[in-house]
Specification:
Blueprint lengths: L4 H9 L5 E5 L4 E7 L5 E2 L5 E7 L4 E6 L6 E9 L15 E9 L12 E7 H8 L13 E5 L3 E5 L11 H9 L3 E3 L4
Antiparallel strand pairs: 1-2, 2-6, 3-4, 4-5, 5-11, 6-7, 7-8, 8-10, 9-10
């Protein structure tokens, strides 16, 4: 998985090194990055930190309490939703990047709500909207966080379905439209 050089340089300057982590439940390898972002004043009352993806062209604003968040790079998968008979050829799954922002207080024995961001091409998004690309058992597609000229950024269906610490905070954060598209080439 390629990580933008500018992002790695920022991490290196903060003394951080990417740590590969194998998720044994899915067989996917993730890169987990811990980020100590500089706070920026968006108003006198509220300070925020942010995650910037120059590769996909977006910025995600977070409350100051998320300073030190981790980034997990993975992938989402989907298919056409058909039921295949024995002997029929099943097409390979459609995939795309999944960037997950993890709260700095998240622990294995005390997890908190993550913020998963699906990176979806415009063609994939049209298929999802038309019900021809299914990415979950939910009867609806991902919800749109925003888009730029190349990508649609989506939240997986039912991503806050679990009663987990921080799910209300993340739900409220999403209501304030924290994703800001950036220009990409």
């Amino acid at each position: 998985m390629a990580i933008p050089l500018a992002f790695l340089l920022v991490l290196t300057s903060l003394g951080q090194q990417p740590k590969p982590r194998l998720d044994l439940t899915s067989g996917l390898t993730f890169i987990v990055l811990q980020v100590d972002a500089q706070s920026t004043s968006t108003s006198q009352k509220m300070k925020s930190v942010f995650y910037v993806s120059t590769k996909y062209g977006f910025r995600f604003l977070l409350p100051e309490s998320w300073n030190g968040y981790s980034i997990i790079i993975g992938k989402w998968e989907g298919g056409d939703g058909r039921t295949y008979q024995p002997g029929e050829t099943i097409p390979p799954p459609v995939t795309g990047p999944l960037i997950t922002i993890r709260h700095p207080l998240w622990k294995e024995d005390d997890p908190r709500q993550d913020i998963p961001i699906m990176i979806i091409t415009k063609a994939q998004w049209r298929l999802m909207e038309g019900g021809k690309l299914i990415v979950s058992a939910a009867p609806f597609p991902p919800s749109e966080l925003g888009q730029n000229m190349k990508y649609v950024f989506g939240l997986p269906p039912r991503f806050t379905i679990a009663a987990i610490t921080g799910s209300e905070e993340v739900g409220e954060l999403i209501q304030h439209h924290p994703l800001r598209p950036l220009h990409v080439n």
